[in-house]
Model the fold of this input.
Amino acid sequence: DMYNCFIFQRVPTPWSDKGAGYPCLKPLASWVEDFFMRLDFMKSWLEEGPRPQYWLSGFFFPQGFMTAIKQTFSRKYHIAVDILVVSCELKSYGPTEELEKPKDGVLIYGLFMEAGRFDRTSMTLQDSQPSILFSEMPCILLLPMEKAKFNEDTGRGPLGTDPPHDTYECPLYKTSLRAGTLSTTGHSTNFVVMLDIPSKIIADQWVRRGTAMLCMLNT
Done:
């Protein structure tokens, strides 16, 4: 089986089996390149200290990184972590264009959008360019805030039940498969989080198109 996987450019089952590897639909050559990129990212973090921006796609468990962002904010400002949510702020630059570390929260990069694109000029969600299915997202600032303030700022109402204003709650998945199973932590093995993307178009349009963000492509 291992030999056949090498011949047909598939990732061997023992490498990608549940618990041993991370969800990935790339062929073997791209998988190996992605794997070593993850090692390089962790190595630079270990040797050089906290990063100005974090490659979210490089984490085995991105949901845990989201929790760590809230915990860091909670300890800094002595706010209970249970009342915090992670908001997002889209930037107009990519990871190589800006190296300033934010005061609070973290900058992430490496995400892609399917069935839509984020326009850096209007800073809103727009239709995809012709013949381009996936578009690269700019850096995103993940900033924790109290749930009540988050609901107020986004127009969700005090209980967070109203639809948000001028945003699309965009789901983020690890792979384009968009399917997963619940792990022992209660998290999906593929779904990561919902992020608010600015949009002047009603959210129903993006829902019908299946617009979503991905941590990695299939190539």
Observations:
- The mean pLDDT is 91.
- Residues 168 and 197 are 5 Å apart (CA to CA).
